[in-house]
Design goal:
The protein is an alpha/beta fold. The chain folds into two domains: 184 residues, Aspartate Aminotransferase, domain 1 (Alpha-Beta Complex); 253 residues, Aspartate Aminotransferase, domain 2 (3-Layer(aba) Sandwich), CATH 3.40.640.10. 40% of the residues lie in helices and 15% in strands. A seven-stranded mixed β-sheet has the order 4-11-10-9-7-5-6, with helices on both faces. It has a four-stranded mixed β-sheet with strand order 1-2-3-14. Strands 12-13-15 form a three-stranded antiparallel β-sheet. β9, α10 and β10 form a beta-alpha-beta unit. α7 packs parallel to α9, α14 runs parallel beside α16 and α15 crosses α16. The longest helix has 22 residues. The protein starts with a helix and ends in a 5-residue tail after the last helix. The structure holds pyridoxal-5'-phosphate (PLP).
């Protein structure tokens, strides 16, 4: 057996016990596909700042950051206090309340396209609502999505990952459901122009920095072209900022790249680490949700209905409003970006020093590594080579992750999300863990 795996197993005996129990309860023992991990996932007991601790007492620099929700790190005191205060008042009123207004006002002040907002309970619900609103508003059915781009797990967006793929990504959706879905290659302006030419597309939806939080990067120029082409063809541009919102800048990618969408979808950082999402954007589109007092025909046939028990739940509203205030008034995004840039530079220096075939790069506070092939290094920290980065091959990635767990780092995919609570200590520990992991992988002949 691999020495790396042997060490992982020895260090995670308590997690193994919990994984065995979980295996009797949940499919694959987990509650989110991305948490499945062989031989078993780690079970976390507590977290603080940029770190977390598992049930076996192991400490990690955490790069999952609540699947990207924790730009402020774990347990930011102001957010925790706001949640405690909200909980004292009650967990659910089944009524309107002041905190939801404060939260909504923050969204409108911060997000460039935000004229009105409606809260949902997750990012999946937000993208589902945005596409439904776009169809209702435009009277068109077709939706265009980019290859590999992820927008949650509702029926429409789990359509084919690639245009030529005959199978939906997820079975269980009625056949014919995808007839009104067109998938175009990411970054291909001509293909998008052709897809929009018949003027029958309700909306184009995309992850602005590229599929899977930028694993397959997109350029700002492409996103600008999407803005132009959608405007020319009367198509709504839905920017899915579930990841990038309140991270790339207080106003997300729209602020940082100066591209304003018609609608944008948000979750994760929006709700300060609690469950929540929203759709915001042009008032006339969001107003498809308006109830009109004496317009029976509108209410029954034309408006988009929306319910949801946990929309703008008081605890989530308190966490979200506080997180957004801190982001709007502080340097949280810039701090996380600067830490990420220093991590990427340090990793590239390490790879050079050790002659490792690979490179690191980032966009804003999201970083990635390529490993196991002669990948170009970025000229600074953002990916700027003509070819697509290839990341880490799945077999190598698994062993890399075992080794990094053994040395105190929890990656997300082939990299991670950095918070404003990460700093020099976390960067130093991460580089040391990579140095040790590279030694481990070389000892087992997995890396040249
Ligand atoms: C870009 C993007 N959109 C939508 C979603 C779905 O959000 P949620 O997990 O809150 O349903 C995700 C989740 O990771 C995402 O990354």
């Amino acid at each position: 057996m691999s020495k790396i795996l042997e060490t992982f197993e020895a260090m995670h005996a308590g997690s193994r016990v919990l994984a065995q129990r979980a295996g009797q309860v949940f499919p694959s023992g987990v509650t989110h596909d991305a948490r499945a991990f062989a031989p078993w996932p780690i079970y976390v007991e507590r977290a603080r700042g940029g770190r977390k601790w598992d049930v076996d007492g192991n400490e990690y620099v955490d790069y999952i950051g609540g699947h990207g929700a924790l730009l402020l790190g774990h347990n930011r005191p102001e957010v925790m206090d706001a949640v405690r205060t909200a909980l004292e008042r009650g967990t659910h009123f089944g009524s309107s309340h002041d905190l939801e207004i404060e939260w909504g006002e923050r969204v409108l002040q911060m997000v460039p396209c935000g004229e009105r907002v409606r809260f949902t309970s997750s990012g999946t619900e937000a993208t589902m609502m945005a596409l439904r609103l776009a169809r209702a508003y435009s009277g068109r059915e077709r939706v265009v999505k980019l290859e590999e781009h992820f927008h949650g797990w509702h029926d429409l967006v789990v359509g084919r990952l690639r245009a030529e793929d005959p199978h939906p990504y997820s079975p269980g959706v009625p056949s014919g459901f995808y007839d009104a879905l067109t998938i175009v290659p990411a970054g291909d302006v001509a293909a998008l122009r052709e897809a929009l030419a018949p003027r029958d597309v309700a909306a184009v939806i995309l992850e602005p920095t590229g599929a899977h939080w930028g694993t397959h990067p997109l350029t700002r120029e492409y996103v600008e072209a999407v803005r132009r082409l959608t405007a020319e063809t009367g198509t709504l541009f839905v920017m899915d900022e579930v990841i990038t919102g309140f991270r790339m800048a207080p106003g997300g990618c729209q602020e940082r790249w100066g591209v304003t969408a018609d609608l944008s979808t948000h979750a994760k950082i929006l709700a300060g680490g609690l469950p929540g999402g929203c759709v915001t954007g042009r008032a006339e589109v969001i107003s498809m949700l308006d109830l009109r007092e004496s317009d029976v025909e509108w209410n029954a046939q034309r408006r988009v209905s929306h319910q949801g028990t946990y929309n703008a739940n008081p605890a989530a509203a308190a966490a979200g409003a506080t997180a957004l205030r801190l982001i709007a008034e502080g340097d949280e995004c810039a701090t996380a970006d600067a830490t990420t840039a220093s991590l990427v530079r340090a990793l590239n220096a390490l790879f050079m020093e050790l002659s490792v075939p690979g490179s690191a790069w980032c966009v804003s506070s999201m970083w990635h590594v390529n490993l196991g092939y002669e990948a170009p290094h970025p000229s600074d920290v953002e990916w700027d080579a003509p070819e697509e980065p290839r990341g880490v091959a799945p077999a190598l990635l698994r062993t890399l992750r075992w080794s990094l767990f053994n040395h105190g780092v929890d990656l997300m995919g082939n990299g991670g999300m950095v918070s404003s609570a990460h700093g020099d200590a976390e960067v130093g520990d991460t580089v040391a863990a990579f140095r040790a992991a590279i030694g481990d992988l070389r000892a087992e002949g997995l890396l040249t």
